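Our consortium's second objective concerns turning raw sequence data into structural hypotheses that experimental partners can test. To show how far this objective has progressed, the report includes one record in full. It was chosen at random from the queue rather than selected for favorable results. The single chain below, 127 residues long, was entered without modification.
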Amino acid sequence: MNKQSTRNSILAILLLILLPLTCIADEQRESYGEQIGYKTLNGLTNAATGWIELPKSIINVSNEHNVVYGATIGVLQGTMHTLSRTLSGVMDIATFMIPSKPAVHPEFVWQDFEINTTYGDYFDIYD
């Protein structure tokens, strides 16, 4: 196996492991362990899948306006959202010990795909 296929295999395995675990997104996380575990999972997932924001934004802007607008403004908006979601994921991983709520909405890029991504308070702590 060459390096490229090994890397692709590892990425596929990680995604197969992480994606089903995101079903806990709608459940209430009460204990400290659940909160920091979810934050870590959210951070890993957003850091790994942030790049999906680019085609998502192109599609959404094209559907709202037209293809030319989507190919220009959608690319710029998608690049901004890609960097923002990926860096938010990295920050979630780096600060996983602080049990804060997700700052990116929707929490995962594939949730509510037709809705543009928004950002909230990064250190909004659980009650």
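The partners drew two points from this record. The chain is about 60% helix and 5% strand. Residues 3-119 form one domain. Both points have been shared with the crystallography group to help prioritize constructs.
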